[in-house]
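Is magnesium ion placement plausible here? Inputs below.
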Amino acid sequence: MKVYKFGGASVKDAWGIRNLEKIVSAEKENLVVVVSAFGKTTNALERVLKTWLSGDNSYKDQLDDIYSYHLSVAEELFPSDNSGKSKIDVSFAKLEEYLSTSKKGEYDFEYDQVVSYGEVWSTIVVAEFLKNSGLSVEWIDIRGNLITDDRFRDAEILWNESSARIQNVFNFKGTKSYVTQGFIGSTIAGHTTTLGREGSDYTAALLANILDAEMVVAWKDVPGLLNADPKWLSDAIRLEEVSYREAVEMTFSGAKVIHPKTIKPLHNKNIPLHVKSFVAPEQKGTVIKSETILKHGLPVFIKKENQIMISIVPKDFSFAMGENLSRIFYLFVQNGIKVNVVEASAVSIDVCIDDDRTKVTSVIDDLKAEFSAIYNENVEMLSIRHYTPEAIDRITFGREILLEQRTRSTVRFVVRRV
Ligand code: ASP
Ligand code: MG
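Reply from A.M.:
I modeled the complex. Tokens:
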């Protein structure tokens, strides 16, 4: 069996879902189809959540807009069939009831209860359409099967609890394919969780691992993995093959085409990941796998924007490495911060992290007792895998370099525009 994953951009309108149907119906083998929320629905639901939490009733209008969007897609796809539409109505009514009756809990918890609906609605529409087109398909609610811990908004799978359930549910008895939600899961207690923004790729990888899939195909609005973001460097070139290791390095450095957590479950079972264009399904795309014969030899450029660099110095001027380093890292982990670059000298440590202001303020507060911490905001992290002098000149030109780090394969800069 195979796992196909369709992101929000590929299911943002009726055309996209018809296109999905063509791609799915061309597949001969058993299939699990993992789908994200339509278009920018997750962002829209985040706004509903914020409005609702602030006690402002205009969240109802925002939700109405999301409802109209889904209904218009459904009406275009199945004008004469009302069962799909009524399923959407029932699900919207459930969320409306939740919002009007629940007492508001913690932000992360409520986030998952509310924002997770995007994937429920998209999969209802997709599954109905595939059924109406004559395909053998079953809709699965992944909650109750993909079991996670209770770190809301960043939940981790519980393998033992999930494996048996998932193998049992996706058994292909009486059906050739399943449609299910990316991005969401639930705790053992039955509360909905989410796996982190853009987490549907990760869901696809988890299901592939548990079901021993032959491959995962992630259908995207790009022709595959490129050696740079084409919005940044317009001459970006598609990479035909990339190793798991290379893909992890790329996503860690900020390459956005696949979610960073996706690779590990695939690597562990040696399952290849194909990244392909949903508008040109006949084209090759990129395959990510263990053995790659093709050495592309191209520099790979990766940019991570919206970074902040913090320079930390022990107040007593003691050496930065050793005990201080472990204390500093402990504080970052405690605050849920992932460190993107670290560079240490005798008495100072520079770290570069995503500029999530609440977390940054909180960690600086925690550091204050023992360390002085000053920060540079509005910086970018630029990485080049397989760098050359020309490649470095190309992207550092006109920028002030605040930090530079080189290994044999990678060079990284923290820079500021001048
Ligand atoms: N819909 C979710 C998001 O936009 C998950 C995903 O697209 O992978 O973050
Ligand atoms: Mg999305």
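Short version: The chain has a mean pLDDT of 95.
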